[in-house]
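Quick one, tokens below:
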């Protein structure tokens, strides 16, 4: 099988695992191919891959159909908690910060529970709810439709929302990190939202676990070397050692701080 087809089918599996379900048309738009190509791919991907087709879309098979966000939030708990604590240690009381979508960004929100008088600008409803327990905080959310089951807001409205604010810190994750350091997402709207909050913050903090290094996704964002500080649970494989070295100390591994 051609490497392009293998890569595309791997991406389909990753996207469905992330989102739980997605239409054939949306997959075609994301991956830049026709709906006929996607349908041929889906013919090759079946129950053995944990996927099933239903009414013009592809979704996780019944035995794997747990809430995708809750699945992600429940993986590598120790590593994400350590990431959250280190990132939160950089945020003082009274700070203004962006918090983006994702389970690792949520771990930072949980670690901020002792902070007071924060102004939090976020499209991550779970993070907003965690930080709402401190009544001195101010929390600003975008309007629009809430994406379930992830409990977040996405789309062009979110890009415009972040464009209206400035913050001291931007806390965000990414779907994957390519070999050249490119930050990858599953949709260009997510890239644009991340770029907007990164550009509108004085300090950018990328929070990821080591599994994101080498993980594929179709939409390209900025490069990891553009980030002010990266917090990760532990060092990635040797293939990424040159990339880590180029960060010149701007990447922290939680295991090294224990």
């Amino acid at each position: 099988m051609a490497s392009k087809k293998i890569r595309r089918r791997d991406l389909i599996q990753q996207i469905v695992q992330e989102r739980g379900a997605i239409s054939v048309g949306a997959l075609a738009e994301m991956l830049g191919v026709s709906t006929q190509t996607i349908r041929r791919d889906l013919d090759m991907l079946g129950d053995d891959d944990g996927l099933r087709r239903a009414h013009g879309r592809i979704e996780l098979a019944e035995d794997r159909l747990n809430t995708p966000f809750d699945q992600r939030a429940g993986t590598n708990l120790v590593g994400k908690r350590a990431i959250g604590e280190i990132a939160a240690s950089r945020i003082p009381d009274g700070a203004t910060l962006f918090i983006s979508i994702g389970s690792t960004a949520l771990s930072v929100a949980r670690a901020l529970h002792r902070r007071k008088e924060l102004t939090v600008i976020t499209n991550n409803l779970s993070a907003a709810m965690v930080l709402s327990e401190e009544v001195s905080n101010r929390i600003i959310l975008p309007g629009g439709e809430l994406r379930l089951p992830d409990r977040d807001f996405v789309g062009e409205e979110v890009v415009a929302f972040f464009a209206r604010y400035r913050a001291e810190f931007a806390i965000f994750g990414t779907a994957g990190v390519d070999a050249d350091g490119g930050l990858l997402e599953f949709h260009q709207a997510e890239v644009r939202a991340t770029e907007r909050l990164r550009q509108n913050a004085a300090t950018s903090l990328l929070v990821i676990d080591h599994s994101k290094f080498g993980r594929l996704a179709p939409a390209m964002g900025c490069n990891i070397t553009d980030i002010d500080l990266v917090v990760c649970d532990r060092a990635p494989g040797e293939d990424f050692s040159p990339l880590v070295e180029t960060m010149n100390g701007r990447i922290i591994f939680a295991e090294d701080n224990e």
